[in-house]
Write a structure and sequence with these properties.
Residues 132-184 form the RNA polymerase sigma factor 70 region 4 type domain. The chain is mainly alpha-helical. It contains ten helices and no strands.
Length: 205
């Protein structure tokens, strides 16, 4: 399967998000609300994979930090998604350290299946599973694969952005996401999923 880029609508959303963030940094509260609306669903979906029912509370804490430090952010819409995911992940890990439990990836909700992701492997996998199956199957993935899938498909980050959130090399995250999606596809018997490698996720090597 050849190289496939991100959906055009994803680029449009990130363009809208970038403009909203720029206006919000100038004090436009309505623009900040737009940025929140564009980012929050994916952010909560990701956090549900880490902290389950605590996701909304952790997201709230993250947004307080995002609002406080907004003036220091530099980047475009896609960069803002990565920046907010990094902040949210830190807050989630703080909570998990306090609870002394490992991140869990078994509490995803329907928003995972409704959010647009990348083409090819992820599309084939997510289009064939119900919420219940997603909860069960992703919880069975190794943690690195589960979190990579969440960041790539739920939050909508590209490989390098997901790698920055996780503090890993892009190649490692790309491979983890690909392997996770391939495992899901194999379990579901999804058709048309090839072994071309991580570029199936829509990235260059």
């Amino acid at each position: 399967m050849g190289h496939v880029g991100e959906p055009r609508s994803a680029h449009a959303r990130d363009e809208e998000l970038g403009m909203a963030v720029a206006l919000a940094q100038d004090g436009d509260e309505a623009a900040f609300a737009v940025a929140y609306r564009l980012v929050q669903p994916g952010l909560v979906g990701y956090l549900r994979g880490l902290v389950g029912d605590e996701a909304e509370d952790v997201a709230g804490d993250a947004w307080l930090e995002i609002a406080r430090d907004l003036g220091r952010f530099r980047g475009d819409g896609a960069g803002f998604r990565g920046w907010t995911a990094t902040i949210a992940r830190h807050r989630a890990l703080d909570l998990l350290r306090r609870q002394k439990v490992r991140p869990r990836t078994s509490a995803l909700e329907q928003d995972m299946l409704e959010l647009p992701g990348t083409h090819s492997t992820s599309d084939q996998v997510l289009e064939t599973i119900s919420t219940e199956e997603a909860l069960r199957l992703i919880s069975d993935l190794p943690r690195d694969q589960a979190e990579a899938v969440l960041l790539r498909v739920v939050v909508g980050l590209d490989g390098p952005s997901a790698a920055r959130v996780l503090g890993k090399r892009p190649g490692a995250v790309r491979t983890a996401a690909y392997r996770g999606l391939k495992k899901l596809a194999a379990q579901l018997g999804a058709r048309g999923v090839t072994d071309d490698g991580p570029t199936t996720l829509g990235e260059s090597r």
